Every structure is written in C-alpha cells, then in structure tokens.
Amino acid sequence: MTTKKQSLAYIISASSVGTLIEWYDFYIFGSLATVLSTKFFPTDNPTAAFLNTLATFAAGFVVRPFGALVFGRLGDLIGRKYTFMVTLMLMGGATFAIGLIPSYATIGAWAPILVLTLRLLQGLALGGEYGGAATYVAEHAPAERRGFFTSWIQTTATLGLVISLAVIMATRSSMSKEAFDEYGWRIPFLVSILMVLVSLLIRKNMEESPMFEKAKAEGNISKNPLKESFGNKLNLKYVLLALFGATMGQGLVWYTGQFYAQTFLLKICNLDDIQTNMILVIGLLLGTPLFVIFGALSDKIGRKGIMMAGMIIAVFSYRPIFDQMYKTVDVTNKTVVPGSEKMILQGKTTTVTKEFTDGSSYKNVITEVSLDKTESKISIKINEKDQWTLVAYVFFLISFVTMAYGPIAAFLVEMFPTKIRYTSMSLPYHIGNGVFGGLMPAIATFLVSNAQTAGVVQKPYLEGLNYPITLISVCVVIGIIYIKSAKKAA
Fold it and tell me: What is the helix (H) or strand (E) element at residue 4, kind and residue range?
C-alpha cells in the first residue's frame, strides 16, 4: 500500500468514526422515543405524548439547514477540519445533557423545554457535520473513485443506528424493565460523551483538506460563501436541483426505510420492542455493505441512474412491503391455542394474554387512567420464521436506501466548486434529509392515526406512506428531466 493510500484510508476512517458517533448520538433519541414520551411529557394522553416526542425529535431535523448555513460558511472560510471539530463537541455535549434532565413529574414544563432546546443544538451541530466530512473525504479522494470513498461515510449513519440499538438492547437486558424505565434509559445518552472524546482525539491529528489549502494559498477563498452560494443565479439553480431532484427523495427513502420501518413495527403493528430492534439491526447489517457497492458502481456508470432507480423501486414497493409486514404480525390472522387466553386483574390494571398455534403471543395491559378513560398497551411477539420474514422486508427497504444514498455525497460534492462547496452542498442535503425526511415518521404516524379514527379506508395502517410516495415521485420527475448525468466540479 502506498503512502497516499494509507493516508486516504486513515482520513476515511477518522472521518467515518466521528460521523458514526454523531449519528449514534442523534439516533438514540429516536430509538427511545416511546420511553422518552413518558418522561418528558404529560402521560394522560399516550398518543399525544408520543406525537409530541416525535415532534421534538423532528425539531432537531428542522434546524439542520440553519446549522448547514452556519457551519458551512465557517467551513468555507476557516477550513473543513476545525469546523467539524466544533460540531462534534456541540453534538456530544447536547446529547450528554439530555441524559441529565429531570423528568416531567419532577420539574414540570421545564422538562420538554430543556429537551427541545438540546434537540435544537443537536440538529444545528449535525447540520454542519455531514457536509464537512463528505467534503473532506472527497477533496482527498481521486476524482474517478469519489463515489467509492465517500460511500463509506454513508455507512456510518446505518452503523450509528445499529450501535445505538445495540447499546439500548444491552442496557435493557442488564436490568429489569422497571429499572430501565426509571433510570436505565439515561445510560445510552451519558455513554456517548466517552465516544465523543475518543473521536476528538482521532480527529485532532487530521490534516486540513489539500484542495482547501491550495485554494487558500492561491487566495481563492470565498469572502462571503452565503452570497456566492445563494446570490449567484447559476449556483442557486444547482442548489435547488440538488434539493428537489435528489436529496428530497433520497431523504424520504432513507427515513422511510430506517426510521419509519421501526415506528411502523412498534406503534402500528405493536410488535415487541426488543424483537423490533433485533429485526432492524440484522436487516441493517445485511444491507449496509450495499452503500459501498452502489457508491463504487456510481464511479463506473454515473450517480444519477442509481439514485433514481432506488427512488422508483421504493415508490412502487412501499405499499406491498409494509402491507406484508403488517399482516405478518397481525394476530387476527392467527389461531388461538385453546385455553391459552388469560385475564389477570390487579388494582386498576387488567392484563390479557393469548398464545397462538404458530408460536406467536399477545399481551395487552389495560390501565384505568380515570373513570371514563383507559390506556391500552399491546405487545406482540412473533415466531422465528416470521421474524426472519420481517428481516427480509427490512433488508429490501435498506437496499433502496443504499441505492439512493450511497452515491449522494460524491454527487453533491461534484456539483459545486471548492471555495463554496461546504456551504452549497450542506443546505440542500439537510433540507432534503432534515425537513422532508426527518418529519416523515411524525407525519406518517399522524396520517395513520387520523385514518384509523376516521375508519373510511380499508387499510388505514398504510396511509402514512402517502407522504413519502408522493414527494419521492415528484423528486424522480424533476431529477430525470433536469439533472444531467455528470457535472464535474471545478
């Protein structure tokens, strides 16, 4: 291996480790949304509390574009390395602090206010992180292999989710359910500070991007990156094309395949939380290598075709796949074992359990909240065969993600010149992912809840998919018509 290749391998690894930890920090909030809804919001309406938690989670995505502007500008002015060192510290500090916030029962309305504030800081930091890491790696990589090298960064998002789920599952399995609900949920947040410190040490030894150093030596650094990025009509056109012809659809494919699949199994199918997370971890691990494969393939046949193909397949596959996922868990299609149904009354709580002939089980804990109101919490466990069936469906969803997401960093980097690259590529990426994609779980859950209440459609559990399917279709049309197959950056 040559010195250059060793250096590039180190650069990719160091960038990927930092990005992985940033994603870990961000994902644990989403993965623990169900628990957090009972800690930081009033619990008299569980559905409203969960939607409030998802909205708080989504708020972090909404502010990402502002983080892209703030840190993208800094990255184009002072350099890539020091900017995403700052984003890493901001992200890690905010995540650690969430683990210290007292519950709603202790400090009342201050609990959701503090959580929201820290979520906004997380979103701002992440808004500046991805663009820095992608730009940094791309500016070190040979032009003909940018797709391959930058695709490694995309794997960190999935690995960050997998590690966050693994930490949560390990924490859950190390203590009782009551202990996890009481204090154990804080541990994944607090542990993150150690991972951030390790990442800071690794990134501290990285050199500045050679393209940025060259531009700086030649006096070709932008004095006003925001004005040159969005005040220049030609560059603004590329920013809008990148958003509405690529990142909007890519973000929706990503968040539907990873986040909504988890929310769908947990909240709509009522699948057991440990079994849900196990299915997601296995599906993600099987699908993650495809990021690199499609990234490398984009160096050979172009970025656009692969990304558009992933979005088109997603549009036509979502409803059949999610329908089969629902039917796989649905106990109304299963046969109850005679004599297995039991009902246990304990105070204001009634627990109903059933066993099914295929090995599945059902548990419904009904709690009397007031004289005219009860709270029901259903948990279904499926047999091993059905579990692997769901793993296969999740793998298919992730494969669409890897097609749309694998080449995206190289695609965005090549659209913009060095001096305004950090700013120009960060904004469309984070609007597409943060706003259109990040709002997806909350909007889809809301649409399903409304459809179930109205009772006018045959399959209300699929109504949430109308949001991503519609916008991805729009993105595909714009991308196919207006985006050229290749545009090399200056």
Answer: helix 3-31
DSSP 8-state class, residue 345: E
Handedness of CA 489, 297, 155, 51 (dihedral sign): positive
* Report field, pTM of the whole predicted structure over 0.85: no
Q: What is the pLDDT along the chain (490 residues), one digit of tens a residue?
A: 444 445 777 788 777 776 777 678 777 877 787 788 888 887 776 667 777 777 777 777 788 888 888 888 888 888 887 887 888 888 888 888 989 999 888 888 888 888 888 888 888 888 887 788 888 888 888 989 999 999 988 888 777 877 887 888 889 889 988 898 889 999 999 988 887 888 788 777 778 788 888 888 888 888 888 888 899 999 999 999 999 999 999 999 999 998 899 889 998 999 998 899 889 889 988 998 999 999 999 999 999 999 999 999 999 999 999 999 999 999 998 999 999 999 998 888 899 999 999 999 999 999 887 777 787 889 999 999 999 999 999 999 999 999 999 999 999 989 998 889 888 988 899 899 878 887 888 889 889 988 988 888 889 999 999 999 999 999 999 999 998 765 444 3
Distance CA 456, CA 224 (A): 54
Q: Which helix or strand (DSSP H or E) is residue 191 part of? A: helix 187-204
Cβ contacts of 461 within 8 Å, gap of 6 or more: 264, 268, 269, 322, 326, 448, 451, 452
Dihedral angle over CA of 94, 99, 104, 107, nearest 10: -80
What are the angstrom distances between the C-alpha of 359 and each of 65, 273, 278, 353? 47, 17, 18, 13
Which amino acid belongs to residue 192?
Answer: S
Is residue 375 within 8 Å of residue 366, measured between CB atoms? yes
Q: What 8-state DSSP symbol labels residue 372? A: T
Residue found by looking up tokens 């203590």 in the block: 175
Distance, CA of 273 to chain centre: 18
Query: Torsion over CA of 195, 180, 159 and 400, rounded to 10 degrees?
Result: -150
Q: What is the DSSP letter of 465?
A: G
